[in-house]
Design a protein that fits this description.
The protein has 152 residues and is an all-alpha fold. The termini are far apart. The N terminus is likely disordered. InterPro entries: Glutathione-S-Trfase_C-like (IPR010987), Glutathione-S-Trfase_C_sf (IPR036282), GST_C (IPR004046), GST_superfamily (IPR050213).
């Protein structure tokens, strides 16, 4: 029998898999296979940012923590956010959405990621406009106003 061991990293991946399944069931994963693939790519990029954030934040060794933070700010974030900024620019029919022309769970993953990086929005105008668009959707705006405020 295989024993499943949970770590912060595995738990987060399982969480996103569950969210992805819910997205599939609710039609938030894209309209066709190409959009589903694009959605998964964006979500995986958001997961990478969060992993690097958590790895840096929870590192106990201050020297290693500084190295991880430097990698995050100088490599991971510019690469991934630049990629997403380009994806938003190239999705002309998307009306501001990352994939296709309607809300996907990639949009939700992106605004969740950017909520933890508010200082970077000025550097990425398409991502900033995207965040305003998605957070302005009536049901999501109502949820955001009612949800409990947390540090993470």
């Amino acid at each position: 029998m295989t024993k499943l061991v949970f770590t912060k990293k595995k738990t987060e991946h399982i969480f996103y898999c569950i969210i992805g399944l819910r997205g599939d069931l609710k039609g938030l994963d894209g309209k066709n296979n190409i959009e589903k693939l694009q959605t998964d790519v964006i979500v995986e990029e958001c997961i990478q940012i969060r992993e690097d954030q958590f790895n840096a934040h929870f590192e106990k060794d201050e020297t290693i923590k500084a190295e991880k933070q430097k990698k995050l700010t100088e490599t991971t974030l510019p690469k991934i956010l630049g990629f997403i900024e380009k994806a938003l620019s190239e999705n002309a029919r998307g009306n501001g959405f990352v994939v296709g022309n309607q809300l996907t769970w990639a949009d939700l993953a992106l605004i969740d990621t950017m909520e933890r990086l508010p200082d970077l929005l000025a550097k990425y105008p398409k991502i900033s406009a995207h965040k305003k668009l998605v957070e302005g959707l009536p049901k999501l705006a109502a949820y955001i106003n009612k949800r409990p405020k947390t540090d993470l």
